[in-house]
Design a protein that fits this description.
The complex is a heterodimer.
Chain A: H1 10-13, H2 15-25, H3 37-41, H4 52-60, H5 64-69, H6 72-75, H7 81-85, H8 92-107, H9 114-129, H10 134-144, H11 154-160, H12 174-189
Chain B: E1 7-12, H1 22-34, E2 37-41, H2 50-56, H3 58-73, E3 78-81, H4 84-99, H5 101-111, E4 121-123, H6 124-140, E5 149-152, H7 175-181, E6 186-187, H8 201-204, H9 206-222, E7 227-230, H10 233-241, H11 243-250, E8 258-260, H12 261-269, H13 286-291
Parallel strand pairs in B: 1-2, 1-3, 3-4, 5-6, 5-7, 7-8
Helix pairs in contact in B: 1-12, 2-3, 3-4, 3-5, 4-5, 6-7, 9-11
Classes of the chains: A mainly alpha, B alpha/beta.
């Protein structure tokens, strides 16, 4: 960077975005004082371009576009180590959830966010069957993400061990789940839910 | 003559226990029957949403858990949960909704009913160690697992974050060690019992799992463990089903059987080995069990 000096003002800090993250996650972003304990314990740290403490710092400085465009949020494993160790009770795992939602809503699928594709398929299965259907989840994910041969050798092994169920479990009261999905959608249309 | 149960619970197995973790379900039922602890499956339970739901849509995740809690509330007894992820999600929902009136009202609209915030939700470990009791568990042992060195693996969601599962301390828990020591087995001291295995990246980023789970297997081996004990279907999948891949990717060999805690406990209290789903494990545990004279 040519000019490494940074000037802070309420405008550059873009507190509007911070407030959005705080409302979605139920956790303070502003309380972080950069001790770095979250990053020290993060098992996914080596896969991220911005470690967890820097994600929070970028948010505090209004640089949320860099956070949403980067790959870090898609490498968080939701292991909750950061949230457990934060001395200031910043729930970083919940902040990561909020950032993933905001990134997906703003940018849709991307190279980095294809993890979210697996998550979406998982939820689609719940909507259709009421319970998870592991074989369909793996098969559809591999097709949609273009990795046709992924875990090709694992399938037959799991089948012979009886661990892969070819037929799905279905909940007889599936209507109740469909209602939950449609009520949430309705609330969102009316602007009553995030 | 049927004997009366000492304790009774409603039971939420979760999706994995009906599919890739069926041996966890089978061994849980076998163990609890032998200990005379009643488990009655919650009728028509739904998926709790696990990690994917809260990664995408927190309101949906909370609503799915609230729905399951209200189904469980119609049944008698505290809710027993086997899967660490389901346990964590159900407890998280109770915790978040008790704290947040706005979110609770949204969830109440979504499930069209009240959320049973006070319904006791207990992991199997808690039932065995606290409700049933370690002394009674030790008395029930018919075949002590003497000489078996066990690496007890907690993973992430049994203990974290500290104020949610309320199972044990999140940095230095002892509940798994206490339970397995009651059978005469020897829990080893090791470094990676609370580290993440890569969790649900097993589908979308298996490379991450090969990396993180390798560190866990290596640590257990270094500590001299004969086997690993888990209480989570996803941890089991990553450490057991992917173990061969991990070995190939890292040019090493572990051959480390990964048991569900209910399989080892079941073996100790005299559940027939054929009822523990040992044949479903990918890393064959039989040579180890024969060597230790446990079959």
């Amino acid at each position: 960077m040519k000019n490494s000096k940074m000037y802070l003002s309420t405008e550059t800090m873009n507190l509007g975005f911070v407030r959005k993250v705080e409302a979605l996650s139920g956790s303070s972003v502003r309380r972080c004082f950069q001790c770095g304990k979250c990053s020290a314990g993060c098992p996914m740290r080596t896969f991220m371009e911005h470690p967890p403490n820097r994600i929070v710092r970028l948010l505090q400085l209004g640089q949320w576009e860099r956070v949403l465009a980067g790959r870090s949020i898609w490498y968080c494993a939701s292991c909750e180590t950061c949230s457990s160790r934060c001395p200031n009770k910043v729930d970083l795992a919940a902040i990561m959830d909020a950032l993933r939602k905001l990134s997906w809503d703003a940018n849709g699928p991307s190279k980095e966010s294809y993890v979210q594709l697996a998550n979406r398929l998982f939820i689609e299965n719940i909507k259709t069957y009421g319970r998870q259907y592991e074989m369909r989840l793996a098969a559809v994910f591999n097709i949609k993400s273009g990795q046709f041969m992924k875990d090709f050798l694992l399938g037959p092994k799991l089948l012979t061990k009886g661990k892969l169920k070819v037929f799905h479990q279905k909940n007889r009261n599936i209507g109740e789940i469909e209602q939950i999905f449609s009520r949430i959608e309705e609330m969102r249309k009316k602007g009553e839910a995030p | 003559m049927p004997t009366k149960n000492i304790l009774n619970y409603s039971y939420y197995p979760g999706c994995s226990l009906h599919a890739s973790a069926k041996e966890y379900d089978e061994s849980t039922k076998g163990l609890f029957k032998t200990l005379r602890i009643g488990l009655k499956e919650v009728p028509n339970w739904f998926c709790c949403g696990a990690t994917p739901a809260h990664n995408v849509d927190e309101l949906l995740s909370l609503s799915l858990c609230a729905k399951n809690l209200s189904l469980a509330d119609n049944e008698e007894g505290d809710l027993a949960v086997a899967c660490a992820a389901c346990f964590s999600r159900l407890k998280t929902a109770q915790h978040r909704l008790a704290d947040n009136d706005v979110k609770r009202k949204q969830v109440e609209v979504a499930i069209d009913g009240a959320v049973p915030l006070e319904k006791p939700v207990k992991h199997l470990l808690e039932i065995l160690a606290k409700d049933y009791g370690l002394d009674r568990l030790a008395d029930a042992v018919k075949k002590p697992l003497n000489g078996l060195k066990v690496a007890t693996y907690y993973g992430c969601l049994l203990t974290r974050p500290p104020d949610v599962p309320e199972l044990d301390c999140c940095e230095a828990p002892t509940i798994m060690e206490n339970v397995i020591a009651a059978t005469g087995a020897e829990p080893v001291a090791w470094s990676h019992r609370l580290e993440c295995c890569g969790a649900n990246f097993t589908l979308s980023r298996p490379g991450v799992v090969l990396n993180l789970s390798n560190a866990i297997l290596a640590s257990a081996k270094r500590a001299g463990a004969d086997c690993i004990m888990v209480a989570c279907p996803l941890c089991h999948g990553n450490l057991d089903i992917r173990q061969k891949e991990i070995e190939e990717a890292n040019g090493t060999r572990y051959g480390m059987p990964v048991f569900y805690m209910t399989q080892l406990l079941g073996l100790a209290v005299g559940v027939p080995a054929t009822k523990l789903g040992l044949e479903s494990m990918i890393v064959n545990p039989l040579p180890l069990l024969k060597e230790k004279n446990l079959l």
